[in-house]
Structure formats: C-alpha cells, structure tokens
Amino acid sequence: MSGSQAWTVRLSELKDASEIMMLDELVWNERTAPAPLSWGSRGEFLRHAPPGSQLVAVQKNILRGYIGFQPPTSLVSNSHVLSIHIAVHPSCQREGVGSLLMHAMKELAASRGVRKLSLRVLSCNTGAIAFYRKNGFVKEGRLAAEYCISGTFIDDIIMAHHLKNDRP
C-alpha cells in the first residue's frame, strides 16, 4: 500500500460524516451507480448511514475509503446477511485500500455471526467486478436492463461472499 504511515481501519464515528459524504460525491457516478450520490444534508446522511455502519480506512488522519454495511431487510430470517458497498478515494484506488477494508469487513461480519455478504454492482463497472471476484465474491444473479443510464440499458449484478462453507 502507498505511503509510509500505516493504515487504520475502524468503525465510523460521527466526526467522519462530512468526509464520507465528500467521498460519496467523488466515487458514485453513472459508471459506478444508477445515479450520482449527493446528500442533501448531514442529517440526511446520518439517518441513512449512522456512525458504526461503516468501516473506514484512515491514513495520516485522512479518511480514504469506507465499506458500508447493513442488513438487507429487518426480517430475523435474513439477519445472517449483510448488504455492503465500498468506496475508495480515486487517488488511493488500486493500492490495496479496498482489499484492506474487505478483509476487515469479513472479520467483523464473522465476529457478529454473519454468514453472507452481498452486494450489487453495475455490469459496466468491470474494475469493481474484478475486485469483488479477487476478494472471493461470486455472481449470484443478474437483473437484465435494470437501469437506463445516459440512454444505455445496464444490467445490475448481484454478488455474494459466503463466510462459511456450511450454508443452510
């Protein structure tokens, strides 16, 4: 990984909100998401992503990436799954920050009894798909022509990583 100072991965705190919001605006665009992401207010962001609902990667007191996680539904029967999304500052991409976050996410999930991590990725985001495969995710489904972005129909790919081999 770049830089001589070690990276810290920790649960997000209230003080991280503005940096995560700025990172969202940098990372989530029509190549990486169905629509650009811009929060209307800090309060709106915090209602959607409260402190502790992300793991953040910090170096020299600067937040450079995060992985958000939440249960996909409120159903008890679905509580063994976490839906995730990851964002890494463009200046730090392809430097191991994402893999560091993903490793930490798997450890946190396992410690909480989670058996499966799931995510959705646009079919045109080939770099992200390769990253997820490298980190043990497999394709579980494809929603054909789920989005129309700039006049082009784009599939939505559902991927998952099973933390235990003894699936129910």
TrEMBL record:
UniProt domain N-acetyltransferase: residue ranges: 12-164
UniProt entry tagged with the keyword Nucleus: no
InterPro entries in UniProt: Acyl_CoA_acyltransferase (IPR016181), Bact_Acetyltransf (IPR050832), GNAT_dom (IPR000182)
Keyword Acyltransferase part of the UniProt annotation: yes
Keyword terms: Acyltransferase, Transferase
Source organism, top-level taxon: Bacteria
Full protein name: GNAT family N-acetyltransferase
Organism this protein belongs to: Paenibacillus zeirhizosphaerae
